[in-house]
């Protein structure tokens, strides 16, 4: 790895409560910069929030990096716009 990363944006449905959107894991896109990834993730969070009548699409939570010393892979942001779905924007190898 040359130290370059892209950003993966995906939606994950809940597997515990039985309310699973199809598909349970949906890739939204891969982006070259964090700003574009965050914008796409926030848009997806707004869509989910409208569908479920929820109100938490704005503020993301930090996602911790992989447990490889010095690596930021897997680090990024998570939105919880509904009780049953999350949207992630995380770093992946380029």
TrEMBL record:
Identification of the protein by name: Uncharacterized protein
Annotated source species: Parafrankia colletiae
């Amino acid at each position: 790895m040359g130290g370059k990363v892209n950003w993966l944006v995906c939606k994950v449905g809940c597997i515990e409560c039985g309310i699973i959107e199809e598909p349970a894991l949906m890739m939204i896109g891969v982006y070259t910069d964090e700003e574009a990834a965050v914008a796409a993730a926030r848009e997806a969070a707004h869509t989910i929030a409208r569908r479920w009548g929820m109100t938490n699409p704005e503020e993301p939570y930090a996602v911790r990096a992989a447990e490889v010393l010095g690596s930021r892979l897997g680090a990024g942001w998570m939105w919880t716009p509904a009780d049953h779905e999350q949207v992630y924007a995380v770093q992946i190898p380029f």
